[in-house]
C-alpha cells in the first residue's frame, strides 16, 4: 500500500467498478493511483493492483462499498469518496473531465467485507486479538450445551455457546473497549471487563444492542449502595430487579405492557439473565454457596422490565430518582417476586389508595416496618383513576405514607396473639411502614384489568441495599 496518493478499492464482481475501470486507468496516468482488488488481481486493467482477496486491507480501512477512493497523506487517510460520482471524483483527485460518457452517478456495490457469508469469519480473523478471555476447547464429540452445565456456567437453563464470533458480534453493541473494567463483581471481588460481560450476555441470549443496558446493570449491581454481596448472602428470597427507563426501551423492543413481568420478550428476559450470569460466572455468586436464599424466587433467573412512560400519567421513575429527563437508565432494586393487588371497584383515588395501603401493610409481615423498601407497580387502569382526579406520583406517595402510619400497639410482640413484632418500647409510637423514599412507584402492565402489583425489598439502609440508578451509555 502506498503512503501518498490515491487508493481505489474495487472488485470485478461489481457493475459500477467495471463501469469506472476506464476512468481508473485514465487517472493512473495522471495521478499516483493504486487499485486494491477484492476478487481479481488483474482488475482493473491499466492500473497498479494490490491483491486483497484475503480482505486484510479492506478490513483495516473499513470499506463497506466499492468503488471507494481514498486520498492518503503520509499513510493517513484524509478523505474518501464512496461509489461513482463524477463531480466528487474530480474534486477529490483534481482531475477534470472524468468519464464524460458515463452516468453522473452510480451507488456502487457492497464490499466483500460486509458479505453476510464471510463478515462474521472476518470479524473473528481480524478481531480475535482484542479478546483476552481464556479459550476453552470442546472435543468434537462433546455437546456444547452439556459442557456449560458440567462446568457450572449455567443458571439451570441451556446457554448459548460463547464462540469468538458471537462475542465479537456482541461487542459491536458498545463503543467501550473490550478490556475496559466495568466493575469489581462480588462476592469474589473479581474485576469484570466489557469482554466478560459480553461473554455472559451471549450465553444469556442477548442481542448486541442490549449490551449497553447489561453493562449499566452490572455497574449498578456492583456498587456499595446496592450491596450485591449482601443480597446474595441473605436468606431472604430477593434478587436484583432491573427497571429500564428512557428511549432505549423502545429502541430495543422491551416490554412494558401486557405480561410485563412474564415470559415472551427477549430483551426483558435476557438482560436480567445476563446480569445474573455475570454475578455467577465472574463473581462466584452461586446458589448453595454464597447465595444462601431459603426459598429464592423465579425472578432470580431474570427480572427485568421497562416502565410504560408513554402511557403514564406521571414522570418516569428514573426522573423521580434524580435522572435527567430523556436519559436512558437502569434502576436496580433488590426485590422479591411480584404480588398482585386486586381492586375492581374503586373509582376514586382515596378508595384506591386505601386498597393499596392495606395490601402494602402486609409486605413481608404486617408487623414489620421501616426495614424493607417496596416497588409499587401501578397498572394502567388503576393509574387512570389517579390521573382523572389530578393525583400525581408525589400526591399518591404522600397519601400512602399517611395511610401507612401504624400505631405501635398493633406492632409490638404479642399484639394480635402473634409473637413476631417490634420491641415493647415502641408501643406508644406511631411508625410508618416504609422509610421516607422507600416506596418506589412505577407505571407498567397491560391495559385490561384493574390490577397493580408490589415487590418487597431486602433490608434497606447502610446494612442492606439501596435502589441504584445508572445512566446507560453506548
What is the element layout, followed by pairings?
Layout: E1 5-10, H1 15-30, E2 33-37, E3 48-51, H2 56-60, E4 65-66, E5 68-73, E6 76-82, E7 84-85, H3 86-93, E8 105-106, E9 109-110, H4 116-127, H5 144-150, H6 164-171, E10 181-185, E11 190-193, H7 194-204, H8 211-221, H9 228-233, E12 239-245, H10 248-251, H11 266-281, E13 304-306, H12 317-320, E14 329-335, E15 339-342, H13 349-361, E16 372-378, H14 380-388, H15 393-403, E17 405-407, E18 430-432, E19 439-443, E20 451-459, E21 468-471
Parallel strand pairs: 1-2, 2-3, 12-13, 16-19
Antiparallel strand pairs: 1-5, 4-9, 5-6, 7-8, 10-11, 12-14, 14-21, 15-20, 16-20, 17-18
Helix-strand makeup class: alpha+beta
Annotation, overall tally of beta strands: 21
Rg, Å, rounded? 30 Å
Number of domains: 2
Residue runs with pLDDT of under 50 for 5 or more positions:
none
Global geometry: elongated
Note the gap between the termini.
34 Å
Question: What order do the strands of the largest sheet run in, or round the barrel if closed?
Answer: 3-2-1-5-6
Task: Please bin the fraction of helical residues.
Answer: 25-40%
Q: What is the mean predicted local confidence, pLDDT?
A: 96
Structure annotation, total helices: 15
The proportion of strand residues reads 15-25%
What kind of sheet is the major sheet? 5 strands, mixed
Amino acid at each position: 500500500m502506498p503512503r501518498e496518493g490515491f487508493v481505489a478499492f474495487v472488485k470485478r464482481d461489481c457493475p459500477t467498478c467495471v463501469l469506472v475501470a476506464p476512468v481508473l486507468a485514465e487517472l493512473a496516468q495522471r495521478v499516483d493511483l493504486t487499485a486494491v482488488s477484492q476478487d481479481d488481481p488483474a482488475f482493473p486493467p491499466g492500473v497498479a493492483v494490490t491483491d486483497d482477496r484475503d480482505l486484510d486491507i479492506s478490513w483495516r480501512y473499513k470499506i463497506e462499498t466499492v468503488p471507494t477512493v481514498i486520498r492518503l497523506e503520509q499513510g493517513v487517510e484524509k478523505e474518501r469518496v464512496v461509489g461513482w460520482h463524477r463531480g466528487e471524483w474530480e474534486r477529490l483527485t483534481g482531475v477534470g473531465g472524468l468519464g464524460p460518457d458515463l452516468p453522473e452517478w452510480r451507488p456502487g456495490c457492497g464490499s466483500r467485507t460486509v458479505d453476510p457469508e464471510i463478515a462474521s469469519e472476518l470479524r473473528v480473523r481480524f478481531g480475535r486479538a482484542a479478546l483476552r478471555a481464556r479459550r476453552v476447547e470442546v472435543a468434537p464429540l462433546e455437546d456444547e450445551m452439556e459442557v456449560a452445565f458440567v462446568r457450572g456456567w449455567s443458571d439451570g437453563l441451556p446457554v448459548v455457546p460463547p464462540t469468538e464470533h458471537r462475542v465479537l458480534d456482541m461487542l459491536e453493541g458498545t463503543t467501550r473497549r473490550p478490556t475496559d473494567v466495568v466493575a469489581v463483581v462480588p462476592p469474589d471481588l473479581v474485576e469484570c471487563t466489557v469482554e466478560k460481560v459480553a461473554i455472559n450476555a451471549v450465553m444469556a441470549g442477548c442481542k448486541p444492542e442490549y449490551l449497553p443496558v447489561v453493562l449499566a446493570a452490572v455497574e449498578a449491581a456492583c456498587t456499595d449502595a446496592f450491596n450485591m454481596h449482601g443480597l446474595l448472602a441473605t436468606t431472604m428470597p430477593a434478587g436484583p430487579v432491573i427497571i429500564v427507563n428512557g428511549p432505549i426501551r423502545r429502541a430495543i423492543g422491551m416490554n412494558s405492557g401486557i405480561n410485563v413481568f412474564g415470559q415472551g420478550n427477549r430483551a426483558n428476559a435476557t438482560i436480567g439473565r445476563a446480569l445474573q450470569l455475570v454475578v455467577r460466572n465472574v463473581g462466584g455468586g452461586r446458589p448453595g454457596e454464597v447465595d444462601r436464599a431459603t426459598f429464592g424466587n423465579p425472578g432470580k433467573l431474570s427480572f427485568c422490565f421497562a416502565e410504560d412512560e408513554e402511557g403514564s400519567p406521571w414522570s418516569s421513575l428514573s426522573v423521580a430518582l434524580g435522572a435527567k429527563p430523556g436519559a436512558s437508565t437502569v434502576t436496580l432494586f433488590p426485590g422479591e417476586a411480584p404480588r398482585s393487588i386486586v381492586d375492581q371497584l374503586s373509582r376514586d383515588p382515596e378508595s384506591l389508595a386505601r386498597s393499596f395501603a392495606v395490601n402494602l401493610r402486609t409486605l413481608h409481615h404486617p408487623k414489620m416496618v421501616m426495614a424493607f423498601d417496596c416497588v409499587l407497580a401501578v397498572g394502567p387502569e388503576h393509574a387512570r383513576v389517579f390521573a382523572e382526579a389530578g393525583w400525581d406520583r408525589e400526591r399518591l406517595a404522600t397519601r400512602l405514607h399517611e395511610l401507612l402510619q401504624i400505631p405501635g400497639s398493633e406492632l409490638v410482640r404479642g399484639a394480635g396473639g402473634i409473637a413476631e413484632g417490634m420491641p415493647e418500647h415502641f408501643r406508644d409510637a406511631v411508625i410508618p411502614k416504609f422509610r421516607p423514599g422507600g416506596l418506589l412507584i412505577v407505571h407498567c402492565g397491560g391495559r385490561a384489568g384493574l390490577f397493580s402489583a408490589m415487590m418487597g425489598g431486602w433490608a434497606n439502609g447502610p446494612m442492606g441495599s439501596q435502589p441504584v440508578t445508572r445512566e446507560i451509555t453506548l
